Structure of glutathione transferase:
Amino acid sequence: MAGKPRLIYLNGRGRMEPIRWLLAAAGVEFEEVFLETREQFQKLIKDGALMFQQLPMVEIDGMKMVQTRAILSYIAGKYNLYGKDLKERALIDMYAEGIADLMQMILMFPFSSPETKEKNLDSIKERATNRYFPVFEKVLKQHGQDFLVGNKFSLADVQLIEAILAVEEKVPAVLSGFPQLQAFKTKMSNMPTIKKFLQPGSPRKPPPDDCYVEKVMKIFK
């Protein structure tokens, strides 16, 4: 029997957090290895473990997988969270890529200079309310189903609930004009595997603080 997936990253959200979310949503237990020093990162590179000299890395099914999107696609396919055919997979990918664009803004926000933080926060709010969330509000309203694609739980749903909660941490009332997304958030948050992941003590990481930002800069730069 194969061992648990092993996640190698820092002890923080970053680019590993959507992978943690997806594994947790699929009900898959995993192990984590947290880097603390630049030397540990350089050793991984020297040992040839990182194909593009980048993290995150996930050891799964005998592979050392890198590149977040490839890892997410593999996990989604393995655990039947990637649609029933190519058309559904294409929709899931489109939705997931759109969400990833929004999440990139959130990912970079803690690294903003003090002078640009307010402007960047306004940008997150503007993009979420005018570009990204209206898409998903419309999709859910038009087909009247619980999930984004094929009325079946998928990678797209996991990434959307992660994004909703991440934006709400910064803009608490962001869903005020999106009743479908409010209902979606409630349903997703009460799914047993996701509900478990949202409890204290789960592998979900807290919002990045100054200490985390400092560690990222030290290890990767």
